[in-house]
Amino acid sequence: MIRCTDVCKFYQQGDNRITALAGVTLEIPQGAFTAVMGQSGSGKSTLLHLIGGLDRPTSGELLVDNRLIGQMSDDQVTLFRRSRIGFIFQFFNLLPTLTAAENIALPFVLDGRGKAEADARAAALLAKVGLEHRRQHLPEELSGGEIQRVAIARALAFNPPILLADEPTGNLDSKNGLAILDLLRQVNRQDGCTIVMVTHSEEAAGYAERRIYLRDGRVEKEE
Q1: What is the span of the domain harbouring residue 7?
Q2: What is the pLDDT of residue 155?
Q3: Which of 6, 31, 81, 157 sits in a 20 to 30 Å window from 195, CA-based?
Q4: Residue environment code for 81-101, b if the CB has 16+ CB neighbours within 10 A, otherwise e
């Protein structure tokens, strides 16, 4: 599902070249639940952003769902990302003025779908994450765990084959964090969704079938 071959990413800051990834080669099979770990600055989030098409590699080959990300136009990447990849972030990124149902329906609205379809899909996804009773609540009226469940439901709007999670439990207490990890494992096993999760937590990584450790922009080891 995902294959990196000698992928490098450099950033220029004035006269200095910052190395984020320094030749990463790895494969993630379809349907796998993979944790990416490493210290701050190891390149974890950069790798996730490249896989998700939020950034482009400086060099190397990145194949995601049989598409070469580096060779796609901006418009092609945008469409690919919307239909094939779901994103979950540490700080949720819900719109505060929209209800839970409206936040989940938003991708359908942006895609030009009808209101009836958007509402029906939002209702189904709220049921999937156990929040039917909170559909009309604003984010400020929800707990941290409930907000992240809404964010996961939104990420699943188009049934993406790939789900990318950047520290999905990093802003939650341990009880809610474990509930979110249980939900992600359920999505992985029941829907066959390929999940790549960046985390600092060994406990969170224990939910994954496989761990990839990065160090200084390189793969240090795999387990």
Answers
A1: 2-222
A2: 93
A3: 6
A4: bbebbbbbbbebebeeeebbb
Q: pLDDT digit string (tens) for 94-128?
A: 999 999 999 999 988 888 888 888 899 999 999 99
CA distance 43 to 191: 29
Q: What is the dihedral of CA 18, 43, 47, 103, to 10 degrees?
A: -100
Q: Rounded to whole angstroms, how far apart are CA atoms 48 and 116?
A: 33
CATH of residue 95's domain is 3.40.50.300
Amino acid present at 165: A
The tally of CA atoms less than 13 A away on the side-chain side of residue 131 is: 29
What count of other Cβ atoms lies within 10 Å of the Cβ of residue 149? Answer: 25
Report d(CA 20, CA 97) in Å as an integer: 36
